[in-house]
Amino acid sequence: MAAPETSPTPSSLRNAFGHVFSIFILILIGVLAFSIRLFSVIKYESVIHEFDPYFNYRVTQFLTKNGIYDFWNWFDDRTWYPLGRVIGGTVYPGLTLTAGTLWWLLNSLNIPLSVETVCVFTAPIFSAFASWATYLLTKEVKGAGAGLTAAALLAMVPSYISRSVAGSYDNEAVAIFALIFTFYLYIKTLNTGSLFYATLNSIAYFYMVCSWGGYTFIINLIPMHVLLCIVTGRYSSRLYIAYAPLVVLGTLLAALVPVVGFNAVMTSEHFASFLVFIIIHVVALVYYIKGILSPRMFKVAVMLVLSVGLVICCTVVAVLIALVASSPTKGWSGRSLSLLDPTYASKYIPIIASVSEHQPPTWPSYFMDLNILAFLVPAGIVACFLPLSDASSFVILYIVTSVYFSGVMVRLMLVLAPAACIMSGIALSGAFDVLTRSLKFQLPGTSEIFASDAVDTGSESVILNKDGAEEDKSEDSVKERPSKKNKKKEKEKEKEKEKEKEKEKENAGTSSSRSHAERRPLVLPVEASVIAIFLLVLLVAFYVVHCVWAAAEAYSAPSIVLTSQSPDGLHVFDDFREAYAWLSHNTDVDDKVASWWDYGYQTTAMANRTVIVDNNTWNNTHIATVGTAMSSPEKAAWEIFNSLDVKYVLVVFGGLVGYPSDDINKFLWMVRIGGGVFPHIKEPDYLRDGQYRIDSQATPTMLNCLMYKLSYYRFVETDGKGFDRVRRTEIGKKYFKLTHFEEVFTTHHWMVRIYKLKSPRNRIRGKTKKSKSKSSSTISSKSSRTRKKNPWN
C-alpha cells in the first residue's frame, strides 16, 4: 500500500513564509546600512576622511602594488625622521588585508576599481555585515523578532555611522563586525556545545585581533561571563567548550599577529583569561570526580583537588605578580590604564589625554549618538531577566561594561552602540509582541486561532522541557555514574524516583490547570494597545529621522574638505588639499616637513613628503621635541628644527574663518607634552592668572613663542585689527617680523600656513649690523649659552 501523503500544516507554512520574509527583511536592512552611509559621497565626493584613514590608504596602496611579503618587511623612511618606522610590525593588518583582498577579488572578476574606491566603500559594506551579525547574536538571545529589530537599529545608529561612513577607512570599519560576530559565535557555542562553532569563534577572534587593539575587550569580557556562570552555579560542559578552545587556539593565533606577538601572554590585559582558564579546569575536574566517586570519597577528593589547585593558583599568581612588578606600568598599556583610571592619562601621559576622542563624553552626546536607544536599554535589561539564561546574562554584562567604558572615553561609544541596539531590539520586540497579541486575542473571530496557537506553543514548550529533562537526566547519569560498591543504593534510589513519578502523574490534572493559568499571556485593552503601538511607531519614526539627519549633516563631512552655510550660499574650504598640493609640487622629494602630529599621516599620504612625527604617537620624546620647538622663541625653535634637518614648518590656523580645531587651540597640549620631557617648558609661563589668552593680556612667553608668530604673522593685514574669530578677541602682538623663518605659502582662507627655515647665511644678513669692536670670545660665549638652552643638543 502506498504511504498516505502528508499535507503541510498551517503552522509549517507560516514558519516557512516567516523564514523567507526574514531573509527579505535582512537584505533590506543590509541595503539600508550601506546606502545611509553614502551621503558623504553624494554631497561631497569619493574621498578618504579624517587623519588615520590616510595612513591606512597609503599602506593599502603599498600592499596592492608590492605584495604581502614586502608589506610585512616594509621600513617606511618617510615617517618619524630620522628614526623611521617598521610598518609590518607596528600596524594592525586586518583592515589593510581585507581591503586588499576585496580589490584583488574585484579585479579578478574584471571589475577595475581603484584602490581608493575600494577603501572608500569598505566601511559601508562591513556595516551591512555588522547588522546581519547583530541579527544572529540577538536571535540566539531572544529570538528572530528581536534580532531583526536590533539589526535595523544598528544599521542606522549614529554612533556607528560616525565611524563607518563612506570614506572613513579606519580600523573600526571592520572591527565592529568582527566584535559582534565573535560574540555571536561564543553564544552559539554556549547554546549548542558544538566544537565546530568553538573553532569558528577562535578564528573570528583572530580576525578581531588583526583588525583593532580593542580585541582586549573581548578577551576580558568573555572570561568575566564565564566566571559569572561558575559563581552562580551555571557551569556546564557547553560553557567549557565555548571558553577553553577560545583561550588556547585564540591566544596562539593572536600571537601570530606581529603587532601583538608575545604580548598575548605577557601583558596584564590577557591575564584574566588565563586565570579563569585555570578556574574552569578546576571546576570541570570537580564535576568529573563527583560523577565517579561516592559522596564520602568525593569530599576527600575535593579537598585534594582544591589544595592542589590552590597551590597551582598561588604559583601562577606569584609569577604574574613578578611579571607585572617588573613593568613600570604594571603590565598595562597607557590606554588600558586610562580606562581603569580616567585621571591617569592627564597625570602621566598627556599625549593620550590630548586626543579629542579620548576625552569623556558629555550627556548630550549620548542622545546624539544613541537617541531613543538610551531610554530603551533599561527595558531591554529587564526583559533579559525574564527568563535569565547564559546568553541573556552575557548581553547584560556586555551592556554594563560598555556603558562604563563609553563614559571614560568618547571613542568607545562605538562599542556601546551594538549593545544598546541589542537591548533596544529586545525591548521593542517584546513590547510589540505583547501589544499585537492583545489585539489579536480580542478581535472577533481570532480568539480561537490564538488559543490554538497558544496550545501549539505550549506543546512545543512541553516537548522542549522534556528534551531538556532528558538532557539533564543524561548529564546527571554521566556525572553520577555509580561505583560497584553502591549499586544497591542506586537501585533503591531508582525505586523512590519511580514512586515520585507516579505521584506526579496523579497530580497531572491539577498541575496542568495551574500551568495554564500561569501561562496565560498578558492581554491589554484594545484602546491601550492601539495607542501604545501608535506611540512606539512614532518613537521609531523619530529615531529614523534623527539617524538620517545625523548621517547626512553631522557625520558626512570629510575633515579634509570643510563647508559653511551662510546667507549668501554654501562655502567650501579646501585649504588642506591646497596646501598639500603646494608641498607636492613646489618642494624637493627629500625635504622634511615639521608640523604637529595630527597632520603627519595626511602630509605623508597626500604630499609625499617626509615628516618628523605623525598620528602613530609611538615615540613621546620625538613629539615632545616638536612641541618644545613650537613653544620656544623663534631662534631656539630654528635650532631645534635645523638639528632635525627640517626645511618647512606647517601650521593650521583658523582665526580668519572661525575653524576651532587649529594649532592655537591645541597649543597648550604642545606645552604640556614638551614640558613632560624638557622641564624648562612650563605651562604657567603661557597663562595669565591661570587663563589661556592671546590678546594684549597674554604673557610675553606666549607672545614670543614660535606657534604664536607663525599663526598670526601678517594677520592684521586681513582686517586691520587682527580679530581672531575663534578666540573672539583681537590679538595682542600685531606687528612683528620673522628673522629665522620666511612665509612661502598661505592657503586661500588662511587655514594652512607654510614657512621655510632660513639658511644661516640669510639669517646673518637679515640681522641688524653690530659693532665690529666686539671680540670673538664674546660671540663664542653667547653661542655656548644658546647651546645650553637648546634642549635637543
Folded structure, characterized:
- The chain is 64% helix and 5% strand.
- By secondary structure, the protein is mainly alpha-helical.
- Among the domains are: 136 residues, no CATH class; 187 residues, Rossmann fold, CATH 3.40.50.12610.
- The protein is globular.
Summarize this structure briefly:
This protein has 36 helices and 11 strands. The protein is mostly helical and about 800 residues long. Strand 10 and strand 11 form a beta hairpin.
Question: Order of strands across the widest beta sheet?
Answer: 6-5-7-11-10
Mean pLDDT: 83
Number of helices: 36
Structural class: mainly alpha
What is Rg? 33 Å
CATH architecture of the domain at 571-757: 3-Layer(aba) Sandwich
Distance from first to last alpha carbon:
102 Å
The overall strand count is: 11
Please write the CATH class name of the domain at 571-757: Alpha Beta
Q: The biggest beta sheet, please?
A: 5 strands, mixed
Which fold name fills CATH's third level, the topology of the domain at 571-757? Rossmann fold
Please give the share of residues in helix.
55-70%
Fraction of residues in β-strands:
5-15%
Unreliable spans: 454-489, 505-518, 764-793
**Overall form:** globular
